[in-house]
């Protein structure tokens, strides 16, 4: 028996009573109704809530929430409330619909209420209300649906025509409080496909695509709301764009990305990055940045050839824009040692097989090449003709330079590996094509200033690599205007001076292509290694100070403020520490409260508490800093949160190291972006060390590593 004295509140009555916390809540309620209050109504209509927060007391949380002297209320149970409300809404006799729906949107957050409400046909009640209501009533009904969808049940019967209705609201509604929940509902629907870890998997992108096809203005309206003065609406709009990007089916992925680019979504996101966004918006911005990184990685590793969709048209477009005449061709051939048919060498390829040369930059390099041409067609044509009229040794090969710049920028943002710890905004990465165009202009500028010859190509490339690194990292350029000014207006002497300083600190070996490819592979391995290490921290478990509420109860017990008659029942509650441990199958988080830390970590059997939901279903949920509620420094407190901002488990990390290990452990477990600079720096440091270890034998033997080598044709 675990008896605890509490203060019971029922209507206007207040009663002191003992509650046996070892009993199921239903039995406790029955005993209170019949023995303490003498109520004649069915005890099943009642439930218990904390008087301070009105949080429902359940079998899962009663031992954590109910402490000595706690004030608890006896109220109508959420199940009874749900049945009454469903009947009222279905009867069409509701006197004040707005008031009822407003009450519903808060009550439906509780699983017990939501389950009972759905069993009474509540989902169809909400959908019918959304179709019929307007103004605030419509906003409350949509919010009720959004809150229902935070549960993993009860919303698997949403119809296609209702999804179309939601898309119409996004396009035509101007009320912010209507557009917010409508957008939130669409996010949940898009994510509920076969890849979802939840039970509802019957929606996905295909359902939304039908609605978008019927509403052509849907995407323009969504992208336009990124500039909304309502911060939350802009945040939700970006979250929906990200969700669609991650769940779009392969047949529509290309179309969707082209539409976003046509609507200028990347520059809209750049502007948001430069407005000092809050934490939640920052997460969505980093998610978008990571989506673009994966897209660029996929394009770079998409090998191009005459049969690659769209590739031949892109390359032919570059050739036509060069406007090379027969006389230009004749002049170039007279000053060169070329033999055979000549076409692609005229625009800077080294051979007449451009597809083979572009295998190192893939489709991304071809897109960059075409973008430079389109940025100023006349300038491009003039550039090509100017180079052809130079001696063969003095020509700056446009195509080769363009591919080199693509490779250089890929190294700057880890595009080759596709892995990059997203802890800081990289707005210029979003407009990589424009950055490529500017950097290529700087390449030609440096070539002319150095009066370079073909054999100096690697020297010019090294100078630009140093210049780009300094511009991005030392000067911290975040806008295209700043980047263009720094790249194109910095005197050559300054660029050269910086490069010499870099050479004093760096090994030229690390700039070789083969070494860069090695580094990309080792970066991926380092990322996976650190990911496994962080997750292993969760599985091994660790001691944390108990959250403030538990510690306060322990202090009260230690201070002798508990009645001696019931003090023994609180002995197990004098807890100052918690031990958390992730189950070996990585689905549940177990924890227990202890009076002191032990040298031998507790086993899972010794940890009575378990996360109310499996960790594997937390994709719409995550880790969030918690300013209060812990005994450690506020910066090291965090919580596992549900999608409706409810805390599942609170943590008070003792130091920054434990905070980084556990927050990024959960983030990596959920395949989310890491959030701590410590973890990002660890991955980078590990990559650098392992790279240099791999190169020790090469350096010792003084082997020559080529800048580029032809790869054999795939069998």
Automatic annotation (TrEMBL):
GO BP term, pick one: actin filament organization
GO cellular component terms given for this protein: plasma membrane
Molecular functions (GO terms): SH3 domain binding
Protein name: ELMO/CED-12 family-domain-containing protein
Key words, A-Z: Apoptosis, Phagocytosis, SH3-binding
PROSITE patterns for the chain: ELMO (PS51335)
Signal sequence, start to end: none
A Pfam family: PH_12
Domain spans labelled ELMO: 310-472
Function: Involved in cytoskeletal rearrangements required for phagocytosis of apoptotic cells and cell motility. Acts in association with DOCK1 and CRK. Was initially proposed to be required in complex with DOCK1 to activate Rac Rho small GTPases. May enhance the guanine nucleotide exchange factor (GEF) activity of DOCK1.
Region (Disordered): 599-636
Alphabetical list of InterPro entries matching this protein: ARM-like, ARM-type_fold, ELMO_ARM, ELMO_dom, ELMO_domain-containing, PH-like_dom_sf, PH_domain
